[in-house]
Amino acid sequence: MTARPETAALDQTEAALTRIAAVDGDIRAFVTVLGDSARAEARASDTRHAAGQSLGPLDGMPFAVKDNIAVAGVPTQSGTLAFDAPATADATVVARLRAAGAVLIGTLNMHEGALGATTDNPFWGRCMNPLRPGFTPGGSSGGSAAAVAAGMVPWTLGTDTMGSVRIPAAYCGLWGLKPTRGRVPVTGLTHLSWTLDSIGPLARDPATLGAVLAVMSGPDAADPMSAVLQGDGALPGTLDGMRFGIPDAAALADCEPVVLDAFDDFKASLIDAGAVLVPTEVAGWSPGALRRAGLLVSEVECAEALGDALDGTGLSDGFRAMLDYGKRAKPGRIARAYQQLQQLAVGFEAAIQGLDGIVLPTAPQRAFAHGDPVPAGQADFTALANVAGAPALTLPLTARDGGLPCAAQIIGPRESDQQLVAMGQLMQGLPPIWRPD
Amino acid sequence: MTARPETAALDQTEAALTRIAAVDGDIRAFVTVLGDSARAEARASDTRHAAGQSLGPLDGMPFAVKDNIAVAGVPTQSGTLAFDAPATADATVVARLRAAGAVLIGTLNMHEGALGATTDNPFWGRCMNPLRPGFTPGGSSGGSAAAVAAGMVPWTLGTDTMGSVRIPAAYCGLWGLKPTRGRVPVTGLTHLSWTLDSIGPLARDPATLGAVLAVMSGPDAADPMSAVLQGDGALPGTLDGMRFGIPDAAALADCEPVVLDAFDDFKASLIDAGAVLVPTEVAGWSPGALRRAGLLVSEVECAEALGDALDGTGLSDGFRAMLDYGKRAKPGRIARAYQQLQQLAVGFEAAIQGLDGIVLPTAPQRAFAHGDPVPAGQADFTALANVAGAPALTLPLTARDGGLPCAAQIIGPRESDQQLVAMGQLMQGLPPIWRPD
Fold it and tell me: B86 and B46 in one domain?
């Protein structure tokens, strides 16, 4: 903290607001920009720093949150126009981050209802990938990725139901973390699926993810699923000797060649670093069947969570049709979907025994052009961690063609969130890791 | 094994068959008696013993299984008349027990479809409590309890979805165990609820439960939920210093006074033995609401599991009506029921931290007369362990009025099954434990 400018927090906040004003007309990452309150929070942070009363590593750092996470006084629209009443309280994560001194800049564009992965939003605009104009940033937390990748804010929060933090992080060359289920309270989240939803951070480096996670973690009386937190075990100091499960070739059959090549390069670099790669099968894991089960559970739970709002205005016909499908699904099919999730969670628990993580590509392809056909399998590799309730870290990989980045994820045992962050820090220097210019 | 008669297994089997012939016309515990195959299995056991090749503590012991557990060549009727085709293979538990030398005597009466707790079965007869003629043995594993309590076989298997092993054990003065979810494979079980079902043993003492559990436990490739078994930790050698959570008085408000008195006596004896009783609340636990959620999940899953059989004959109108309710339930209500189960499992996990077990009455009342109004809350205390996926041991308690026994259960952390058995053995000598005359 030596040589910290007296107005460092305010400077960062003004820089964020300036950058948003300059580029977000094209990117469309933000839904709401909270200039006045952000400046006030930044000044308060600067005052604390001047008094030697810093609240920690996030004090004074600007951030923004996905539009399905409540911010007091701001509508939580969840990518629709159906919810225009201002939230009466901050989501627990927002309250904890503000209490740690982080400066809230605004709320972020997302795929409508979090149910999709392109962030081509009919109400809030087609969010653009800052790495390539006209391309999707992924989704559903597309605004959360675009805001960081475009340099508007250093980190954001997204939500991840079947991959919605990790897919946009992958498409935009960022690091992202889906925490262990229950570690980060979801109080104040507009649910897509209360069974699968997690709130997680996106940033340009793993250390920031770890700092944000530490502030957000811990039980919250208002969220029954957050009642148990085992705490963090010892953090790894070297990749040498770590054991990572890797899928067989058949599991990756639908990947683009450029993704497979990048994944091969990543695996080779792990071996060079002394890690042991172990062929691993998750019993019962069929990515397509899992995606369909997760989608049905999401449609049923989202329709139930949104309730009467479904009958009002402000939803697209396509989104409403998906929820209507959930409202009409047969009981037996719903029960079978929950059963698939239960069984796969046990299969994952068995597969991860004795491993530090399972390594997979994050998505089967890279970002693609808005308007192109949307690949059905975008969440095929990411949904596994949601179903298992396990933490997963995505990291950006260099593509051999020098184009848009690829990405890999490490899925860890439950409660190994900070171990994953520490692994990410150890991997940061590996040659295949992608870095922005 | 010294001084073992050369025909000990056959003698026990003949004794079982003789006893069944003598008393089961009144008790109606058995659906099928397998005299010939039982005698053959017993002779084979005697031959092994004579050759010094005993397969272990169960070799030559007669047992019987509830009618929803598959026995090759015998119809698995699940308390109905809808499934008269002989099973093509033994359930995994039956195969394992037979492989350990146990002698299968037959299949046992149960509440129709396992969905109820009186075993007043419209097709297989009103099963009687051997401790008092005309009274229910409980259910749904009523035949499993009655067969042991009437001295027909030394132990049986039942199944427990919301209490269906523990309630009949309680009503008949037996010990019973509901194992950790996934510890005992359910391959070959006709499901009531694949989410909540467990197969567990009933016997006159805890040691027998432990021996049976040891043989039944372990992964089975055909049951995805059995993929993980953590193994047994150290077993306790004394009750001194053990920590048991106890509910507050409000949670027990609906108990009969005689049950509360017996529970008080049990708690006092635990304290005398040096145990520490800790007031414990399971966050979110509302017994009535939990029962309704578990019932809805069971109705939905059972209707799905039975499939086309629902449209045929051999089911009572009452049972069919419950499953029809499950087939027509609204998706949102189903999803909320699964959510309640998920949240309560987390609440239990938080509550059990630092405890060796949570101690509760097994049922709010004792056995009652067939034909009397059926108490709504029979499973109010037992369903908690099914939802938590946790093991639970029920043990019989003496009633102050000298009448039918009461019962308490100890619910342990996941995978503490053999610890519970060992605790039971340590508790066996406590004064409040009920013993048959």
Answer: yes
**ipTM at complex level:** 0.93
What tokens appear for A178 in the block?
């889906």
Give Cα B171 distance to the centre of its chain: 12
Query: Do residues B210 and B299 share a domain?
Result: no
A345 is written with which tokens?
A: 């969670």
Q: Are the beta carbons of B71 and B90 closer than 8 angstroms?
A: yes
Nearest-5° Cα angle at A25, A363 to A19:
85
> With pLDDT > 70 as the criterion, what percentage of chain A qualifies?
99
Residue B60 falls inside a structural domain: yes
Q: Residues of B with CB below 8 A from A331's CB? A: 300, 303-304, 326-329, 331, 334
A164 included as an active-site residue? yes
Closest alpha carbon to A112 in A84, A90, A141: A141
- Identify whether A140 is a catalytic site residue: yes
Residue B1 CB coordination number (10 Å): 8
Is A331 in contact with B326 (Cβ distance < 8 A)? Answer: yes
Q: Which amino acid, residue A305?
A: A
pLDDT above 60: residue B262: yes
Q: Are residues B308 and B375 in the same domain?
A: no
CB A66 within 8 A of CB A156: yes
Task: Let me know if B362 is exposed, middle or buried by CB neighbors in 10 A (0-12, 13-18, 19+).
Answer: buried
Task: Examine residue B163 and state whether it is found in any structural domain, yes or no.
Answer: yes
* Minimum-distance CB partner of A338 among B228, B328, B338: B338
Cα angle B28, B30, B31 (rounded to 5 degrees) comes to: 105
Distance, in angstroms, between A328 CA and closest chain B CA?
7
Per the structure, the complete domain to which residue A166 belongs is given by 8-226
Residue B132 lies in a domain: yes
- Please indicate, yes or no, if residue A84 is contained in any of the structural domains: yes
Instruction: Give the residue ranges of DSSP H helices in B28-130.
Output: 35-50, 92-99
User: Is the Cβ pair A304, B332 closer than 8 Å?
Assistant: yes
Write the CATH number for A61: 3.90.1300.10
Q: Which amino acid is at B101?
A: G
Q: Which of A300, A310, A311 to mutate to test the interface with B (most CBs of B within 10 A)?
A: A300
| pLDDT at res. B310 | 82
pLDDT tens column, A6-50: 999 999 999 999 999 999 999 999 999 999 999 999 999 999 999
